[in-house]
Amino acid sequence: RSMVSIKLFRDSNRYKDPLYVSVNDYSAQIQRGVTVQVPYFVAKHIEEMNAQDEATAMMVEGLVMEYNGKNM
Q1: Considering only Cβ atoms within 10 Å of each terminal Cβ, which end of the chain, N or C, has fewer?
Q2: C-alpha 3: how far from chain center
Q3: How far is CA 12 from CA 19, 20, 35, in A?
Q4: Over the chain (72 residues), what is each successive 10-residue block's mean pLDDT?
């Protein structure tokens, strides 16, 4: 397994707890705010999850703006 370094965002609110990741037969809780080593495929999975979260947030924001524009 090829290992890579990652550092997950940490704050004192929503992103304070470790991130649980499960990919095929690999599972782990990844601590936030520190650099850790994970297999490449886990880092890739987290990157894809973050991209999907961002796309969803943008879509929701667009729908809210559209709704507010129609109901003014």
Answers
A1: C
A2: 19
A3: 14, 18, 18
A4: 94 93 94 96 95 94 89 70
